[in-house]
Specification:
The complex is a heterodimer.
Chain A (H helix, E strand, L loop, with lengths): L4 E4 L1 E4 L2 E8 L6 H4 L23 E4 L8 H10 L6 E4 L4 H10 L3 E3 L11 E5 L4 E4 L8
Parallel strand pairs in A: 3-4, 4-5, 5-6
Antiparallel strand pairs in A: 1-8, 2-6, 3-7, 7-8
Helix pairs in contact in A: 2-3
Chain B lengths: L4 H7 L5 H16 L5 E3 L2 E4 L4 H17 L7 E4 L16 H16 L3 E4 L17 E2 L2 H11 L8 H10 L1 E3 L13 E6 L5 H18 L5 E4 L6 H15 L5 E2 L15 E5 H10 L10 E4 L6 H11 L7 E6 L1 H10 L1 H7 L3 E4 L14 E4 L2 H9 L4 E4 L2 H9 L5
Parallel strand pairs in B: 2-3, 2-5, 3-4, 7-8, 7-10, 8-9, 11-12, 11-14, 12-13, 14-15
Antiparallel strand pairs in B: 1-6
Helix pairs in contact in B: 1-2, 2-3, 2-6, 3-4, 5-8, 7-8, 7-9, 10-12, 10-14
The chains are: A alpha/beta, B alpha/beta.
């Protein structure tokens, strides 16, 4: 029986989701930084450049860039390319408003450095909790 | 954060889907920024109106809010659109773009928003009073409302301003609270600051200093003897663009200055600083100019009268856009200024401006008196810029190569 890591943060937008984590230590600018049609990160020299955020539990410290980024999250959702949940260390206006508009579960005040890409993660936005179900490709 | 029973009912969906979403946005922002409660607002200014910035997703969201029963509860006006709503063809706007832009305006209209599209709402009937809580987007107007009028607003984004309109509320944090309006740095100006062009350059210098010293510091400006409305709107646009400032106090000019003391931390700005800022916004020669624009922020009637005076009996040789709010254009029509200006070949670009119109690739070098317009010409449209005083910009449009 593996030990499951459970982290408690703050609710930004309610809703449950689980899936594969995509983690970056860099901020994300949704407007201009993510292609709204494909969900692929297009920001030059970004850690996630070329990877798709669609259907992932997207983990990053905080949002940045233009406030139009909220609309990009909404657009990703209408195109079926939005992340299934977002986890931040510190959520700011652009990401928070985008998650509410697009109804993407979102939790912040989570030590994001403890999470790794490839882990299976469950998010409960309403409770503000994040649970790591597996390690990288093997049960913890 | 504390919500009263009406706000709670909005959040629970008693007032429909759109109001619910709006209250979700506001309550969440309130939690993130530590607001204790909602403040009732009396005036809203919404940004994110140009289809060039909104795109299909933005339009979809606005349509959904309109269909979800969203209705503005307080006086609400709009930022510039991507085109002149009536005269877009003369400005070379693509018909597909025009159709989408009209759909954006219609969505706002359905929500009971007053669809004057301007960055100077305070010049066309959206004029709050001292200490009034408001929720404005548009960084230059936010700075003007906070500083020159002494009203209270944070720098809202498009969706949060819309949310304030549909609920008549905004979370009470930031510049709504006295403690965050206290100056943190004194700016002593030892330079000639009289024309709006000088105020624009000053805004750039102060804005860039704030970037280094700390964005959150409210500046207390000393050394300006007189400031016209036009000068102040230019300063507000520039200091917000280059330093993210939402509020300043100016000794002898702005209403809260007399209640505050200039902080001990002092920065001095010299004539050389101002001249260097002006030079840095000139990266092309005058004879390369192929686009001339005045009206960032939107022109006042005083400025339009001056353009008419300068263009009387002359012909312009370049594409020249005069950008202003439709109500101001109506005054210009009434006074005969429009006729003089249009006879010269210059064009009114009402409801829009050179920052939000889809003009990337159409021009190479912009001549303007606006430091803010220079910033966006460079960063959004890849134009080079020639930055000159107002009257000289007009001459630029008339005489190839300038003086």
């Amino acid at each position: 029986m593996g030990k499951r890591m459970k982290l408690k943060g703050r609710k930004i937008f309610a809703g449950k989701a689980s899936g594969e984590a995509l983690v970056t230590a860099m901020g994300i600018s949704f407007f201009g930084g993510v292609d709204p049609h494909s969900g692929v990160v297009v920001e030059k020299n970004h850690e996630l450049e070329g990877q798709s955020i669609a259907g992932k539990i997207l983990v990053f410290p905080t949002g940045k860039g233009s406030t139009v980024g909220s609309y990009t999250l909404y657009r990703l959702k209408s195109n079926g390319k939005a992340p299934s949940a977002i986890i931040n260390a510190e959520c700011e206006t652009i990401t928070a408003v985008g998650c509410i508009m697009a109804e993407i579960p979102c939790v912040d005040q989570i030590p994001v450095e403890q999470l790794k890409s490839g882990q299976e993660i469950a998010v409960d936005g309403g409770k503000g909790t994040v649970e790591v179900l597996t390690g990288d490709n093997h049960a913890a | 954060m504390q919500l009263n029973s009406e706000e709670r009912a909005m959040l629970d969906g008693d007032y429909g889907r759109a109001t619910r979403k709006a209250m979700q946005i506001l309550a969440t922002l309130g939690d993130i920024y530590g607001a204790g409660r909602m403040a009732p607002v009396t005036s809203v200014q919404i940004a994110g109106v140009s289809y060039d910035n909104l795109g299909e997703a933005g339009l979809q969201f606005l349509t959904e809010m309109a269909e979800g029963g969203g209705r503005a509860l307080v006086l609400t006006t709009l930022n510039p659109a991507g085109m002149d709503i009536e005269n877009w063809q003369a400005l070379g706007i693509d018909p597909d773009f025009a159709e989408n832009q009209q759909r954006v305006i219609q969505a706002f209209e359905r929500m009971g928003v007053i669809t004057t599209c301007s960055c100077t709402p305070y010049l066309s009937g959206n004029l709050p009073h001292f200490r009034e809580h408001i929720a404005w987007a548009e960084s230059s107007a936010v700075c003007y409302a906070n500083s020159v009028i002494g009203a209270r607003t944070n720098r809202e984004g498009g969706p949060s301003a819309l949310a304030a309109a549909l609920t008549g509320r905004t979370p009470e944090y930031g510049y709504h609270l006295d403690k965050n309006r206290v100056p943190g740095i004194t700016i002593e100006v030892n330079a000639d600051v009289s024309e709006s062009f000088h105020f624009g350059a000053l805004g750039k210098v102060i804005g860039e200093k704030l970037e280094t010293e700390g964005r959150k510091l409210v500046p207390y400006i000393l050394g300006i003897e007189n400031a016209s409305l036009e000068g102040l709107k230019s300063l507000c646009a520039s200091i917000a663009t280059y330093g993210g400032a939402a509020l300043f106090h100016m000794d002898g000019i702005t209403p809260e200055a007399a209640q505050m003391f200039p902080p001990d931390k002092i920065l001095t700005i010299s004539q050389a600083d101002l001249d260097a800022a002006a030079r840095s916004l000139n990266d092309a020669a005058a004879d390369e100019v192929d686009f001339v624009s005045l009206g960032c922020p939107h022109l006042s009637i005083v400025e339009i009268a001056r353009i008419a005076e300068l263009l009387q009996g002359k012909k312009v040789t370049k594409e020249f856009w005069i950008t202003t709010a439709r109500p101001t254009k109506h005054i210009a029509d009434m006074m005969g200024y429009t006729k003089i200006i249009e006879e010269s070949g210059a064009k009114f670009a009402t409801d829009t401006c050179c920052v939000v119109a889809p003009i990337k690739g159409r021009f190479k070098v912009l001549a303007t008196d606006s430091a803010k317009a220079c910033y966006y010409a460079y960063s959004k449209n890849d134009f080079k810029t020639v930055f000159k005083p107002f009257d000289q910009v007009v001459s630029e449009a008339v005489n190839p190569g300038g003086e």
